[in-house]
Amino acid sequence: MTFFSKNSIPLLLAVPFCFMVIACESNFRDVQKMGISEFTPSGDADSINLKYTDSGRITANLVSPKMLDYATVEFPFTEFPKGIHLTLFDKNGKQTLVVADYAVSHKATNLIDLQGHVRISSQSGDLLETEQLYYDQKNEWFFTEKRFKFTSTKGVSYGEGIDFSKDFKKVNSQKISGQVQSE
């Protein structure tokens, strides 16, 4: 006596397979949802012009068309998705201008991540151009491991990796090439 014919074996295998696919599809959708960040900004501002002061003196002026503040997430940050124009002032009133297509300020570390056509120029004519640059607000120090172009009164240099003070008085560069006049 035969319980199964040759044609019924594939059918018996297909039924459990269908149940597995249906069960996996449901789990797959749940896993996909876990990858989606489900937080929204606690603050949203258009056309901002912020002035930072210290003891009555303006230390920075930040201008941006859009600001999103994520103050209520586990690692709070402020995002500038449409770029920034940041003017930094030293104690003598000399300015350093920072322009970037995109920026994120991380509150816990006091680091600003500048991205996309980043340009920094000093009042004395120094100019640095790169695609990504970090600014340490506490130490007033810029740094990157990306390729850069540095133009000064001494010449033009190119490299990969640089760090410098906001007034360009201290500059440390890596993998540099170009023609620079020595003093």
From TrEMBL:
<dbReference type="Pfam" id="PF06835">
    <property type="entry name" value="LptC"/>
</dbReference>
<dbReference type="InterPro" id="IPR010664">
    <property type="entry name" value="LipoPS_assembly_LptC-rel"/>
</dbReference>
<dbReference type="GO" id="GO:0015221">
    <property type="term" value="F:lipopolysaccharide transmembrane transporter activity"/>
</dbReference>
<keyword id="KW-0732">Signal</keyword>
<dbReference type="GO" id="GO:0005886">
    <property type="term" value="C:plasma membrane"/>
</dbReference>
<protein>
    <submittedName>
        <fullName>LPS export ABC transporter periplasmic protein LptC</fullName>
    </submittedName>
</protein>
<feature type="signal peptide">
    <location>
        <begin position="1"/>
        <end position="23"/>
    </location>
</feature>
<dbReference type="InterPro" id="IPR026265">
    <property type="entry name" value="LptC"/>
</dbReference>
